[in-house]
Predict the 3D structure of the following.
Amino acid sequence: MNQQDGTIASSASLYDRHPINADQILLTLKEQGRNLDQLRPVDLRPHDQDHYGGEAAVFDLAAAAGLQDGDRVIDICAGVGGPSRLLAEKFTHARFLAFDLHGGRCHGAQRLNAVVGMDRQIDAIQGDAQAMPFADNSLDIALSQEAFLHIPDKQAVLNEAARILKPGGRLGFTDLIAGPALDETDRAALEAGIEMRTLQTVPDYKAKFRAAGLSLVSHDDLSPQWVTILTERLEWYRAMNRGTRQTLGDGVHERYMDDYETFVGLVQAGRLGGGRFVLRKG
Ligand SMILES: C[S@@+](CC[C@H](N)C(=O)[O-])C[C@H]1O[C@@H](n2cnc3c(N)ncnc32)[C@H](O)[C@@H]1O
């Protein structure tokens, strides 16, 4: 794993107590009787996708962005690298950068890549998406799922994506979208509990795309699907309680769950929604 020096925020964050982590995944597989020396990417998949809509959402986003085999691709805020492994298995000549701020998640991505023999096709790199350590005009496709919601300066990450993409390159991302009824109290609870900040409305985002020099190719409203998905995900996290106590410690999972319930309640109430955007540089 490479590390960008100087701009890494504290590792004491939401993702230190997140139920999706490499230890948890490997523990679950071990408990299921799997031989950890003989794992394949498909074995990780029920556990390593930290976004809404599972594998289909990754393929839908990649298709919407026009990803082709042989492309140089970055997953911005890649988590433990599940989407990169999924796409790398299908697009065997593409090269992937799995880029994330959190050291534990980058190490987890690297470990899981190595466990399934994909560490030559995917590089896990640590750094801040608001200032990425990649050359101008160097990548074909940038993807991101359910992560810009954490980033304080949305204009900075959009500017950075535009900078590192080749002319004509595409950014495809999905994110939470603020509805008109989302108020300051809701925003404060989301920021304090689950580190969701500066959530954008669709018009806010469109203005920022223009300022970054990105033209809108498509926008899909994912809000109805996300109500169903997040309601199911809340139940899945509740069911993970025993294993997460073992890997994270007592009390940590309970605190995460309280904050997650608040978040899912806002989605169920229609104050928060979801969107998929595809943008072209130039
Ligand atoms: C919900 S997870 C999504 C992970 C991944 N996209 C997936 O679908 O499996 C959000 C990720 O954003 C990362 N993140 C938050 N702020 C970031 C930043 N400023 N730069 C890079 N990554 C960041 C977190 O560390 C976390 O891994």
